[in-house]
Amino acid sequence: MRIGLQMQLDRPVFIGGTGRSGTSIMAKLLNTHADFCLPGHENKLIVEHGGLRDIVDRLSGRYDITRFHFIIQDFLSRAQQMQQFGFPVAELNQRLNQLRKERKLGFQQAFEIVQRENPTIPGSIHAIGQGFGIEHYITCTKAFLLRIAAHIAPDGIVDSHGLLKPFFMAKTFTREAILAECRRFLDELYAQPVSAAKASRWVDDTPLNFVNFDFLHELYPKMKFIHMIRDPRDVASSFTSQPWFPSDQPLAISVCAAMIRSYRALKDSVPADSLLEVRLEDLVHKTDETVVAVAAFLEVENRFNTAMVSLDKANIGRSRDFDPTLTEAVNRELGDWMRLQGYLE
Asked: What is the structure's pLDDT at 320?
């Protein structure tokens, strides 16, 4: 694929945070600027389970035929699942749409009902293929597979795991070589939508980027990373209202605290000029000042459309109804972090 000279595909912008911390709001803001392109929210093929980080770590590690097979299989399964929203069975998608229409449910609510009714048929509550163009997405994925696989046995093999069909034999790579292949995959994947948007750089807002930005810097040394920060009490409160998290507030507090500890341990692993911390509260209440800082960090003119930054959608202060004992638990687990960020005196 010919990549236009005007593009700067080696200078992506990654956004991350605990989740429910404003990553989508920041991504939408960046997407209003002519220099940036966000083909779809949260490309989970990069740092999440079964994604490129696992590909790099495993294929550059000790040689293990079966482990290599499973990481390639996991990546392909994940890529196929995220081609488009919904289910691979037409009747289930009809059921999903019927629930949305008759009960006036959101997509995630209706999806959860249909998935629980049909637990053996995996659907996708999140998809990115349509944002890139399904055909282009499939083409890039297949080309990547052919570059990292030494041999594909269509009839599979039989071993202690049973029948593994098809069976993928991976090539051997140094870490630098497999990083280069992953970089090429992303460059080719993003080149088409970036070109179509007449932009120069791409954006990804997968929340878990913030505990993987050491890998992201290894993958793209010229990348910029924006860490979206939100009051942990609001984050924990928001977690428990989502279909992807148990309705357990103490657990939400513990998970949030664990992620923040992981981030703090990594913070010094990348150059300081590659990282910007932005509080969601500042983006909402001090919009102009915050956006000026974002533009300077990204080395672009401040031509962002701030009209889409909404106080209502940010839901600041949603934890007001927290049980006092839970507030104490947050303060105990994250008190020093909250004071550092201005959430506690």
From this structure: 66
